[in-house]
Amino acid sequence: MRRASGAEGLNTVAALARVCVVTVAYNSASALRGMLGSLPPSLVVIVVDNASADDSAAVAEGAGARVIRNGANLGFGAGCNIGMAAAATEFVLLANPDTRLDGAAIARLVAAADAFPDAAILAPMLCDETGARVRSWDVEQLHRRLLERKRGAEPWPDGPLCAEFLSGACLLLRASEGLRFDEAFFLFYEDDAICAAARAKGRALVLVPDAVMQHAGGGSSAPSQALSAFKARHMAWSRLHYMALMRGADAARREAWARVWHHASKALGHGLTLRFDKLRADVAGLGGTLAWMRGKRA
User: Fold this and answer.
1) What is the crossing angle of helices 249-272 and 225-247, to 10°?
2) DSSP H/E element including 20
3) 90: three-class secondary structure by DSSP
4) Considering only CA atoms, which of 86, 87, 65, 97 is closest in space to residue 19?
């Protein structure tokens, strides 16, 4: 990764003029209020509403954001793609509704993008609601499953670093790269896939530790048992779709059979022990796995 020469400092106002924030909402009114309230007023914001049943769109419009209303819930990746297509800035900052964004941190991401022109995607250091840092970068998904490690023992970076994966909770994309999400992913693994696509182009992914953003995690939509099952089903389907993209259909089919037995045996055990929340999750995961094996969407 080569470092460009030039001044390090960036005027925050000038940096923000180069960025459009895109977020995708689905019944996210509560989270959106906090996220939009955290933004500097000069930022251009696009909210793609995936047919929310709550007042997400009204909240966004009340905060001065441009709202694009989808007639159906098209999923996270498709929503992001629609927002990116509508943006007209040099950079697009993709941020979940449950993030809290900071103007100075965004400016630091832009400064890093100028310093590292080989980087197609840059990400801030994420922290949780208590301010504790979150390890939101990693090696590639299929590689990390093979590692024996304790991430808590890994050192924290003291400067920008190249990663194989950056969390999709908050990403700065260079618009000229033309990266888009694979819309076959409705939910989960779409950030793994776009990171893989950037790497396949020979582009870098850079974590910028001095740009800090807050991410609540799982707070974009109100929790419910139905939502938990929905997520488990899509997690299982997306896992296999990603495996097929990265390792081929045969490897994905072998993984699918292993996941069938995994979910079925766990569901049986949870049923016998009356752990019904876990039972529902494994039944949903089994359903997503079988849907992929049949060539159907989750």
Assistant:
1) 150
2) strand 19-25
3) coil
4) 87
257: Cβ–Cβ under 8 A, 6 or more apart, which residues?
A: none
Cβ 161 vs Cβ 249: under 8 Å: no
Tokens 């396949």 sit on residue: 200
Q: Are 178 and 84 in contact (CB under 8 A)?
A: no
Q: How far is CA 124 from CA 39, 169, 219, in A?
A: 15, 10, 19
Instruction: Check if the beta carbon of residue 1 is closer than 8 Å to that of residue 118.
Output: yes
pTM over 0.70: yes
Q: pLDDT digit string (tens) for 269-288? A: 989 999 898 899 999 999 99
Residue in 113, 71, 70 with CA at minimum distance from that of residue 89? 113
DSSP code string of 201-261: TT-EEEEEEEEEEEE-SS-SS---HHHHHHHHHHHHHHHHHHHHHHH-HHHHHHHHHHHHH
**What is the rounded distance in angstroms from the CA atom of residue 278 to the CA atom of residue 117?**
46
> Strand, coil or helix: what is 181?
coil
pLDDT, tens digit (0-9, with 9 covering 90-100), for 133-143: 999 999 999 99
The closest alpha carbon to 122, from 193, 9, 189, 207, belongs to: 207
